[in-house]
Specification:
By secondary structure, the protein is an alpha+beta fold. The chain has a single domain, classed as 3-Layer(aba) Sandwich (Aminopeptidase), CATH 3.40.630.30. It has 6 helices and 8 strands; from the N terminus they run ββαααβββαβαββα. Pfam families: Acetyltransf_3 (PF13302).
């Protein structure tokens, strides 16, 4: 298995169906924290649910769509980042993240998302990458800002999560903005 270093004690790696037990243990540790804004815990109530979530995403990745990447800190899965949408032909993608409390405040998500942005813009020729987050998810919105994204608007009460209608903020970064900021792993 390959991984990309994020820090001396942290790596980013493709999260695949054979990681279901590790993923489920991670979800169990952070179930309430992660589930406040992210649906993974509600879709992974047991090991079979975790396996189905990862397996369903593997099929989407095989079709050049959704991709999940785990973040390990000191050898333990503590969260991840993903392409929640990936449309190479249309030039659009969406990235996002999730973490259990043990991974918070270390800059790992920002570093991992920069790797995804670099891949999308420099390797795949994506034109626009979006970030969707509940307005109440201040940590997630701070990542979008650190990534140099522009807040484009709010979709009011568009997302039903755990019986509550949430507003969703839309942030985006365009390829030209990305290049102008000199972000990424391979500065071109």
């Amino acid at each position: 298995m390959f991984s990309i270093p994020l820090a001396d004690d942290a790596v980013l790696f493709p999260l695949e169906v054979w990681h279901a037990e590790e993923f489920f243990a991670h979800i169990e540790r952070g179930r309430e924290y992660i589930g406040e804004f992210v649906p993974f815990p509600d879709r992974s109530k047991d090991l079979e649910g975790a396996r189905n979530l990862l397996g369903g995403n593997a099929h989407k990745a095989a079709d050049d769509g959704v991709r999940l990447y785990g973040i390990r800190l000191d050898g333990t899965l503590v969260g991840g980042v993903l392409f929640a949408a990936f449309d190479a032909a249309g030039g659009n993608a969406e990235i996002g993240c999730w973490l259990e409390p043990a991974g918070v405040g270390k800059g790992l998500v920002t570093k991992a998302c920069r790797i995804l942005l670099d891949y999308a813009f420099t390797e795949r020729g994506i034109h626009r990458v979006e970030w969707h987050a509940a307005s109440g998810n201040k940590r997630s919105l701070a990542v979008a800002e650190r990534l140099g994204m522009t807040r484009e608007g709010v979709m009011r009460q568009n997302h039903l999560h755990r019986g509550v209608r949430q507003d969703t903020e839309i942030w985006a970064l365009l390829a030209d903005d990305y290049r102008a900021q000199g972000q990424g792993c391979r500065r071109r």
